[in-house]
Design a protein that fits this description.
two-stranded antiparallel sheet; 15% strand
Amino acid sequence: MHEPNRTITTPATRYGDPIHRPRPVEPHTVLLPADIPPGVDWVTLPNGVRTLAYTHPHPAPAPEPEPVREPIPRWAKTTALLAPTLGCGIAAAGFGISYAAPGVLAMAEALWATVALIAAGALTPLLLRASRGKGGRGAGPVQHITQNITASGMFGRANGTINHR
């Protein structure tokens, strides 16, 4: 006879539990590196299982661009060329002054002598004039001479008269 429908209940179990519901054993397939398609690679999951997964392609690192060499400014070139020239000029001047120092000292003494001579030359007429008194040797009246010269034309002959007062 026919048996009425009976429902069999089993306790709730986890799928793959080796005691209650064993999973069928699947044979592992062996993949050669040549069989792995591009964009797929072996990865290790956080629980430690290694598996194949799609990965982002790693682009080759771009080469660093070479630094662009900027031209050297004109003022920098000029300064670089003038610096040794100026330094050598100062050194040469110092060297020349060290050789000329005795001569410069002698010239300084000669210049002081020249200043004294000029001062004496300027004071001599003043002293002579002051030494002349009213009764001295040149105590005569002062004479004035006037001269009148006339000429006619550019190449004409000049005539003149002298007047004593």
